[in-house]
Amino acid sequence: LGWRRDTAAVPLLVPLLSDTDATLATTTASALGRIGSQDAVTSLNAARENSNPAVRLAVLEALLRCAEDRLSAGDDLGAAELYADLFHAKVPPTIRTAAWRGWVLSDDNQRPGLVVKALSGNDEQLRLVALKLVRETKDAQLVKVCLRQWNSLPALAQWAVLDAHLQFGTEALSTVRTASKSPHLAVRIAAWQALADLSDVSLIPALTRAAANGEPVEKGAARDALARIHGPGVREAFLANLNQAETTEKAELLRSLGKRGDTATVPVLLQ
Predict the structure, then answer these.
(1) Which InterPro entries is this protein grouped with (predicted)?
(2) Contacts of 71 (CB under 8 A, 6+ apart)
(3) CATH T-level fold of 168-271
(4) For the chain, which residues make up each domain, given as ranges?
(5) pLDDT tens digits, residue range 30-67?
(6) Where are the beta strands (DSSP E) in 27-122?
(7) Predicted confidence (pLDDT) per residue in 135-168, tens digit
(8) Do domains 1-107 and 168-271 have the same CATH topology?
(9) Do residues 225 and 196 make contact, with C-beta atoms less than 8 angstroms apart?
(10) Which residues, 6 or more positions from 6, have their beta carbon under 8 angstroms from its beta carbon?
């Protein structure tokens, strides 16, 4: 009956939710979850406090299934209501985390606030899911809200926001500049790596300073970026900075020019 999504069967199935046979009750909960009608949801909600833990879990999983089906069918509002209700209820951590994820995906208005709160909060499970969603949703509004909270975000969250913004191309340059000044080493390294692909010549001096004075791992990332950065004006930017750089930075620029194998710079270097 569940696989057939037979809504007419709901009144017949409801009494079986409270059957003393746990196997029968859990199977009934699963069937009602597949049917997913409003009557099925109402019945499942009424059975959430079943004294049998196995039945209670089956009921909660069935409600998640109802929410997922609504989201798949385009009923974002209906899905969000179900997910939010489950999230705020007294439920096991796995159910709560799944409900939170569904709520974020189904409620565009609540998404930025929910994600930022999770990124800077103490709930490790929600934070891990939030980090993944930031990268996967490609939500420009979410990125903007996260950027407004940049300084309060931990390292992994800043890194995720940077990765998310990079999906929008050169628009992310301002975020890369911000990330290059982060107090978190991993975030700065990610910024240097991104620069090689975005080819912003204005940041060659910052890259050179990182290559000359950064921490060992950071030096490697900056050197790699200096060797790979490409595009109009890059050669000229290298040579202009070579004339102005400190000794250690000049050495890094010369090292990079050698790695780049740009023969057109040879006459200038020989002067």
Answers:
(1) ARM-like (IPR011989), ARM-type_fold (IPR016024)
(2) 79, 102, 105, 106
(3) Leucine-rich Repeat Variant (1.25.10)
(4) 1-107, 168-271
(5) 999 999 889 999 999 999 887 789 999 999 999 999 99
(6) none
(7) 999 999 999 999 999 999 999 999 999 999 999 9
(8) yes
(9) yes
(10) 35
